[in-house]
Amino acid sequence: MSFIKKIFGLDNKTQEIGGNKMLKIGIVLGSTREGRVSPQVGEWVKELADKRGDAEYEIIDIADFKLPLLGEAGGDASGAAAWSTQINGCDGFVFIVQEYNHSITGALKNAVDYLRDEWNNKAAGIVSYGSVGGARATEHLRGILSELQVAHVRVHPALSLFTDFENGSVLKPKDEQEVSVSQMLDQVIPWTTALKTIRK
């Protein structure tokens, strides 16, 4: 059992902390392009996560909010307000990250930049995919999350377009990837629980 779990008396079936409601973890889809595979990855992660019974997991699709570029004139304020409300209501996150030109997508960077306080003092895991498992995009996202005071956990499931997808488009992950997702969530949940105690 980890140090944090010992302090807070947690196990993988913990649903309440001091009488509070179940943790809410948003699974953020980081791509908005046509033909994206992030919904497949997000649903796969959610299916595995829901079996744990340790939090309420919800898919959050950036595309649903139709966010304009930050600072762009004429944007829909209602989308930005809804995005703020959605992220503010989460205790922690799992980011589904695609690698574009050795970094994260413009849509994800824009969505993250829209907010600040809503991200602070929360925890996050990252599940990435790409030709090298999305490793370079993940490292870029880690720097951004650090600036926003998001505690990103070490375990990082990295899906290869060559070995975890059929024809690069249909998700068929290797068995060890399920183990990696479980290990990631084993870190996300206790960190999320701990950080919830310092937020107002």
As a percent range, the share of strand residues is: 15-25%
Number of domains: 1
Q: What name is given to the CATH topology? A: Rossmann fold
CATH architecture: 3-Layer(aba) Sandwich
Whole-Å distance between the termini?
Answer: 28 Å
Low confidence ranges:
3-8, 12-19
Structural class: alpha/beta
Mean pLDDT: 91
The CATH class = Alpha Beta
Query: What value does the Rg take, in angstroms?
Result: 16 Å
Helix content percent band: 25-40%
Q: What's the total number of strands? A: 8
**Biggest sheet record:** 6 strands, parallel
Order of helices and strands: HEHEHEHEHEEEEH
* Broad shape: globular
- Provide a count of the helices: 6
Question: What is the gist of this entry?
Answer:
The chain has helices at residues 3-8, 38-50, 77-88, 106-113, 135-147, 175-196; strands at 24-29, 56-61, 92-98, 122-130, 150-152, 158-160, 165-166, 170-171.
